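__Protein archive entry__

___
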Amino acid sequence: MSPFDYHRPDTVDEAVAQLETYGEDGKVLAGGQSLLPVLALRLTHLGHLIDIGRVQGLQSIEVDDDGTVSVGATVTHAQVERSDVMAAAAPAVAGAMPHVGHRAIRSRGTVCGSLAHADPAAELPAVAVAVGAEMIVQGPAGQRTMSAGDFFQGYFSSALREDELLLGVRFPAWPPRARWSVLEVSRRHGDFALVGLVTTLEIDEAGLLRRPALSFFGVASTPVRVAQAENLLDGNAPDPALFAEAANVVSGALEPPDDDHASSEYRAHVAGVLTRRGLTETTERADV
């Protein structure tokens, strides 16, 4: 690991000032889940490490009166996984946590760190896109909010500027008739997914599917929703034939990459399989 200067700000303003000063030569450390291995392997260089671990106001999970849930920048995966508040107010988010790495990783890694890292094979970016989360960002010019769909821009690339800090993520109120599932295929438990799917939807009083979201990870440079399949499902009753048709649409719509781990054709096929399984699991899940 190359030498660097270590900084430990006490406030958000101090952290932002350091990011503004050091620019691309400065990196934020929250839990270290992604950054520390990259540094250890010398895959990136930095001159300044900005540890936000003791910055006040970033450690909380809060539910607003409207049901919106805000998760601060230094809240770990394990805290979300164990949180009764998250299980009730954002069950898809809490339910995704067992898929994230291993227990030791979840005890150190942070939700916002995973989002800021923007790995397209990670679970949490796809969850954020599926549920319509918002990113809360602060820089020298002040605070701004952006949708998860706008935040993720490419491989390990986000709309977060060099002088901005991701303060937290805001998850919308969970609808009373909503359901979810998170499925993935990986070589070993804890590995990054070759293909993964976050499914959310509602079932109305007539038993029809409403507002389905199929958010895939591991198949492109960002999380991908397949609007053609979602439109096919919306307003129809759950049915295996419908799910099979949606799966075919998904397999035809996606253009996953080829790499050493899996071919494009394999990933597209698995995405279709996960579509059928995800829709079946989600519609059969008890109301939460």
Observations:
- The longest strand covers residues 195-203.
- Residues 178-284 form a domain with the Enolase-like; domain 1 fold (CATH 3.30.390.50).
